From TrEMBL:
Domain ABC transporter: 2-231
Lineage of source species: Bacteria, Bacillati, Actinomycetota, Actinomycetes, Propionibacteriales
A Pfam match: ABC_tran
Protein name as catalogued: ABC transporter ATP-binding protein
Highest taxon, organism lineage: Bacteria
Length: 241
């Protein structure tokens, strides 16, 4: 199980602002968790720490008690908020390159990249350069990059931000078929992302967890969708949603 203990993190040296102030959290295996928090709450930072991309100043991130960077890289796949096109590479080449960087041999990287591109419904674009595809398609390349390693845990940072409603639905339906036995985490600042199939909700605000439980429990805090926006705003101590 992917677990964070007493995570403290601030950017910059010395007196940088504390972004995470002692977060204890476990990613629920076999479940999809919505990591909900207002802008600047520290969601991206938490996901970077959980993936091993950043190291905490205090506390630890571990899988089954093992906190080594190699283990995190093997066990956790992370899709960053800003997926970058690799100049000059096609969709297939970019996903294959990421697989190769992760240590797969050439033939396996190619095969897995093909599978991942199929899973994200981008077969028609496989030979198009990634700097010439739409923002929504680039998000799906990002998801393919995360899937290609077949890590047990999948962390997705605001995967549908900026997508139109049709693309959002398309992305969610692709996510429904993703296999990640260690758990899937989807970060968002929008309460209406609760519409998607999620099992659990974790609310992060000002570097602390304010809620962590089954989605039904969170929904039960408000009478309807509008209520939940209010519940969330009260929970995070502001009007952001
Ligand atoms: N590279 C950085 N250097 C300095 N400060 C940073 C850096 N990245 C993030 N921060 C700050 O850390 C805080 C948390 O940022 P983070 O991106 O983790 O929040 P978030 O919840 O993902 O926000 P959003 O929903 O807007 O993406 C913010 O105050 C942000 O300004």
């Amino acid at each position: 199980m992917l677990e964070a203990r007493d995570l403290h993190f601030s950017y910059g040296r010395g007196r940088g602002t504390l972004v995470l102030a002692g977060v204890d959290w476990q990613v629920a295996p076999g479940a999809t968790t919505l990591l909900l928090g207002p802008n600047g709450a520290g969601k991206s930072t938490l996901l970077k720490l959980l993936s091993g991309f950043e190291r905490p100043q205090r506390g630890s991130v571990s899988v089954a008690g093992d906190a080594s960077r190699d283990t995190l890289h093997r066990e956790v796949a992370w899709m960053p908020q800003d997926v970058q096109p690799a100049r000059g590479l096609t969709v297939a080449e970019q996903v294959e390159y990421v697989a190769w960087l992760a240590g797969l041999d050439r033939a396996t990287a190619r095969r897995r990249a093909g599978d991942a591109i199929e899973a994200v419904d981008l077969v028609a674009k496989r030979d198009v350069r990634t700097d010439r595809i739409s923002g929504g398609q680039l998000r799906r390349v990002g998801l393919a990059q995360a899937l290609v390693r077949r890590a047990p845990v999948l962390l997705l940072d605001e995967p549908t931000a900026g997508l139109d409603p049709a693309q959002t639905l398309n992305f969610r339906s692709i996510l429904r078929d993703v296999e990640a036995p260690g758990g899937v985490v989807v970060s968002t600042h929008q309460v209406n992302d609760l519409e998607q199939d999620v099992d659990r909700v974790t609310v992060l605000a000002e570097g602390e967890l304010r809620f962590d439980g089954p989605v039904e429990e969170f929904r039960g805090l408000g009478g309807g969708a509008d209520d939940l926006v209010t519940v969330f705003a009260d929970m995070v101590g502001g009007g952001s949603h």
